[in-house]
Design goal:
mainly alpha
Length: 78
């Protein structure tokens, strides 16, 4: 299987969501780093939604094992 540019974006998108999950689960002061991650996620999502492949990848992540990945992907898939 050949990696596509969308594969890299999807990996970075999911990785950002996993960082957000870890930050949220860790408690403490997380507003500033959270906002930076949300900004990064939004940029990645905007790039992904430009192609059918990217939109499909976001939709597939609705079934991810991680709840943060599922929730944010479901919201973006709408």
């Amino acid at each position: 299987m050949v990696d596509t540019p969308a594969d890299d974006l999807v990996g970075r998108y999911r990785g950002t969501l996993l960082e957000m999950h870890a930050l949220r689960a860790g408690g403490g002061k997380w507003a500033t780093p959270w906002n930076k991650l949300v900004n990064r996620l939004q940029s990645l999502q905007l790039e992904l939604r430009q192609t059918a492949e990217g939109r499909s990848a976001i939709t597939r992540l609705i079934e991810d094992e991680n709840i943060t990945v599922r929730e944010w992907s479901a919201a973006y898939a709408l």
